[in-house]
Amino acid sequence: MHTVVVGPAGTTAEDVVAVARGNARVELSADALSALAAAREIVDALAAKPEPVYGVSTGFGALASRAIGPDLRGRLQRNIVRSHAAGMGPRVEREVVRALMFLRLKTVASGHTGVRPLVAQTMADVLNAGITPVVHEYGSLGCSGDLAPLSHCALTLMGEGDAEGPDGVLKPAGELLAAHGIKPLELREKEGLALLNGTDGMLGMLVMALADLQRLYTSADITAALTLEALLGTDKVLAPELHAIRPHPGQGASADNMLRVLAGSGLTGHFQEDAAPRVQDAYSVRCAPQVAGAGRDTLAYARIVADRELASSVDNPVVLADGRVESNGNFHGAPVAYVLDFLAIVAADLGSIAERRTDRLLDKNRSHGLPAFLADDPGVDSGLMIAQYTQAALVSEMKRLAVPASVDSIPSSAMQEDHVSMGWSAARKLRTAVGNLTRVVAVELYAATRAIELRTGLMPAPASLAVIEALRSAGIEGPGPDRFLAPDLAAADAFVREGRLVAAVEPVTGPLA
What we know:
Oligomer: single chain
Order of helices and strands: EHEHHEHHEEHEEHHHHHHHEEHHHHHH
Catalytic activity: L-histidine = trans-urocanate + NH4(+)
CATH class of the largest domain: Mainly Alpha
Number of strands: 9
Structural class: mainly alpha
Largest sheet: 3 strands, antiparallel
Pathway: Amino-acid degradation; L-histidine degradation into L-glutamate; N-formimidoyl-L-glutamate from L-histidine: step 1/3
GO cellular component, one term: cytoplasm
CATH architecture of the largest domain: Up-down Bundle
CATH topology of the largest domain: Fumarase C, Chain A, domain 2
GO molecular function: histidine ammonia-lyase activity; phenylalanine ammonia-lyase activity
CATH superfamily of the largest domain: Fumarase/aspartase (Central domain)
Family: Belongs to the PAL/histidase family.
């Protein structure tokens, strides 16, 4: 099994995905253990002094003015976990919780949080045992960290609350820890606070969304090319010299992807030969690289933010190498929240343009010779009419999900925390948007391949034939009389989501961007 080593320098997006989705094992580096021990010495020294230090010997948030004596500090740390584990609503997906725990471990291993090495090792042991705390949908404002979600994870480390075992069965956390030989943590000064105070949930969801969207943007370039081909459009608008004079990197990459998919097509270039000659293709076809390319450039910026966060140590207060423990505002989720919202916007627009292309394929007045709704016997058969309805419903929801969460702020903690990021909410709606976008692209794929097969007498591009063969091998049927459509659409969704569309094309085109 793949092993991810965690050290003071942070981690990578690939490691996050490997732990969250691939169940990779986690190990602490020797440097991490040294950094943890050094920072803990600083915390222990401050705890022994009479002067109050936030997070070590005081209350929290609006209660920070109260000094807490040594006899109550263990109780203080337990209480912050128990009281902050106040989430409500449906359970969050297993991969999100694993990303959340792993990223908190990453920050703990930086040596800036002041927890004991034992705390970090217990976190790694819980991940490696496949124990997944129950985390709920609601409870984070994206400021002072993803407090409730992280608290539910910390509760499991203490042997309290419920968690899911590697077999998927929900049990009391204490039972699961005992079954795997893991001793529950007894928290000491600062440790409860250090386990709660980070942007780990929203960052984990950002990292996974970026991985999914990279695949979806490549997939959307492929389906756009297939639609252009099915509509007998021109590939001249994809010429590299046209995109070089507007040098947005994403635009050039999308145009190149489409051009390579269309190489060798006998269908393109007929746009001036039918009964209603076109001077130009419609915007949804002609401007596909510009729209998808702008989204690609947004992904690139979001990766920069994610990489910076992955190299960060987010806690309050933090332990500095010179022995100081300082309060700060690095837990504020604004940088992550903004790009999560931005990605929801570009995902909605990519879905929107894909839906417009699908609608064009189904409209006999605009499809240049294709049967109405790509039906076998229009009137008797409805073809893909309602598949487009479903696609439109998905896009409509994506447009609602594109409304930014990060512009909202509800003050909390008796006005001490009077401006929050709502980054967790931004991440949750982005996950829904990514799922919807996958389905939207799948519907365009289903329609475009059917339309290409209905263009008898002209030879499609080799890449298009490879896609059609892969779809049919996957049991996704082609043109014919009406049938129960939902299973085909579900299979097309899985085909796109699992990367099989890209995998079908690349042996012909070479690696696509």
